[in-house]
Design goal:
This protein is α+β, with helices and mostly antiparallel strands. It folds into two domains: 148 residues, Triger factor/SurA peptide-binding fold; 98 residues, Chitinase A, domain 3 (Roll). 59% of the residues lie in helices and 15% in strands. The strands form two sheets. A four-stranded antiparallel beta sheet has the order 4-3-6-5. Strands 2-1-7 form a three-stranded antiparallel beta sheet. The protein is globular, with a radius of gyration of 24 Å. The N terminus is likely disordered.
């Protein structure tokens, strides 16, 4: 009887131990970013998330295509989370999170209340998905906290811009743009894949699969921008586009960007223009441009200082 009990105990212990070993193998650590780890399950979930958001089939080919972007996204998220914890940032815009989830639900043709169920049905971790976007919002809070004192604008410069706007009779071009941003280290084969996906699946899906920009979660959309607020290098290429056309990859700091022209319009300068509104728009655009520059520069600096080890 004692022998039988011992054998039962041994068998139970063996299977528990073996199950634990298997789970460790299945959920192995593939990278360490600073003091944060990225596991194989994290990568798997990120791939599933991208495929779900892009309405792509779960095939080996699509998994292989998406894997690199998934790993890059997780590394970027880990870098940002390290910095967020360092500065103890806890506040973010709840309204922005709600708007984002509503837009995702709309893109997937489901009601917002059904979004979580859709993720569960597709065996994708919904909580991780929400936390990823919270990271972007917390990052925005962090950048504003660090650099808000550097957002002061030269009032004379603003007044000069307003005067120029008021005295010119020409029209000002405005562009509604989307972007795909990726590392300078990416080779020609990667770029071919990006353009192939743009042609076959649409720019939004390509942005979700390959872009490392926060805009990837919104199909790459960055909204309306005046030609006066766009970097000259970018503007030279964007101005050549017709609606729905895309640019060649354009270098920006340590990344490259592909833009798509969604729409364009002409804004006429005339006497009936609201000066106060014009001033607010100019100030807002200049601050957004500065914050974006601070954000990219800060991220590049801390990423270069962060030890990233791949197993």
């Amino acid at each position: 009887m004692k022998l039988l009990k011992f054998l039962k105990f041994f068998i139970i212990c063996f299977f528990l131990l073996w199950g634990n070993v298997l789970s460790q193998i299945e959920n192995s650590i593939i990278a360490k970013v600073g003091n944060q780890i990225i596991t194989s399950l994290d990568v798997e979930n990120e791939i599933k998330t991208i495929l779900l958001l892009t309405d792509s089939e779960v095939t080996q080919e699509n998994i292989n295509v998406t894997k690199k972007a998934a790993v890059q996204t997780l590394v970027s998220k880990a870098v940002k989370n390290n910095e967020i914890k360092k500065y103890k940032i806890k506040l973010y815009s709840v309204d922005d999170l709600k708007s984002y989830l509503e837009s995702v639900a709309t893109n997937l043709n489901v009601e917002e209340g059904m979004l979580k169920k859709l993720f569960i049905l597709n065996q994708v971790n919904y909580e991780n998905f929400v936390e990823s976007y919270k990271t972007e919002l917390l990052w925005n809070t962090l950048i504003y906290k660090i650099y808000n004192t550097k957002l002061s604008l030269n009032p004379i410069e603003i007044e000069n811009i307003i005067k120029k706007e008021m005295t010119k009779n020409e029209t000002i071009k405005e562009f509604k743009l989307s972007e795909i941003e990726f590392s300078l280290k990416e080779d020609g084969e990667f770029i071919k894949k990006v353009y192939k996906t743009i042609n076959e699946e649409g720019f939004g899906n390509a942005a979700k699969k390959y872009s490392i920009s926060a805009s990837s979660s919104n199909n790459g959309s960055i909204g309306w921008l005046s030609e006066r607020s766009i970097n000259k290098t970018f503007l030279n290429e964007i101005s050549k586009l017709k609606t729905n056309e895309v640019t060649r990859p354009i270098q920006y700091l340590e990344t490259k960007v592909i833009f798509k022209l969604d729409k364009s319009k002409n804004q006429k300068n005339n006497d009936s223009i609201n000066i106060e509104q014009l001033k607010n728009n100019i100030v807002s655009q200049m601050k957004i441009q500065k914050l974006d520059l601070f954000s990219r520069s800060h991220f590049t600096n801390i990423k270069n200082q962060t030890l990233v080890k791949f197993k």
